[in-house]
Amino acid sequence: MRHGFFDLAFTPSVQAEQLRRGSRAAYAAAAARDHDAVAEEGLSDAEADFIAARDSFYLASVSETGWPYVQHRGGPPGFVRRLDGVTIGWAEFVGNRQYVTAGNTAVDDRVSLLFMDYPHRQRLKLLGHLHPYEPDERPDLAERLALPAYRARVERFVTVAVEAFDWNCPQHITPRFTADEVEAAAAPLHTRIAELEARLCTQGGGDARDRSLEAHDA
């Protein structure tokens, strides 16, 4: 599906800009190689696992007046799931109730999604068609996408039929870590510090007893 991303994203105006700035030949060669290769059918386990590990992503849509809008979507890791080879989905929770993305996609269902892995400096871009469902409209989605342990009210379920995706290079991605990631990385250090403090306390107590015995003998 990567060659599909080039086909959709590299419009004539984009190709003209690439040509003007000297990158068109490299991208044309890459697109030709992708077309000559056996086409990948849908999202592989690599994409599915990457998406399932994320706790947020960015979702872009365009209004009927032509203005783009980018929205952050978040939840517990794994709240976005691969439903089949070309479809992903998630539960949408009640938020600020502006419904900008909902309104935009009611007119034009084409969206772009960006999934980021800041610690490992990786990003995955997807293009697709978004479709919303009310909670009682698709019981099968409610069963597959519900997050009963997450304390948030589900407003609707959303699926995206993925048309194309592409992996980005890691350039200029600054590593960032969540509080949970920092806590997990620091856990061995905290354990080691506790062990050393306990050892010091034990040694300190022994020294005090020795000094007490010496004073008694004197």
From TrEMBL:
Gene3D superfamilies reported in the protein's UniProt record: Electron Transport, Fmn-binding Protein, Chain A
Location of the Pyridoxamine 5'-phosphate oxidase N-terminal domain: 44-142
Protein name per the record: Pyridoxamine 5'-phosphate oxidase N-terminal domain-containing protein
UniProt source species: Methylobacterium trifolii
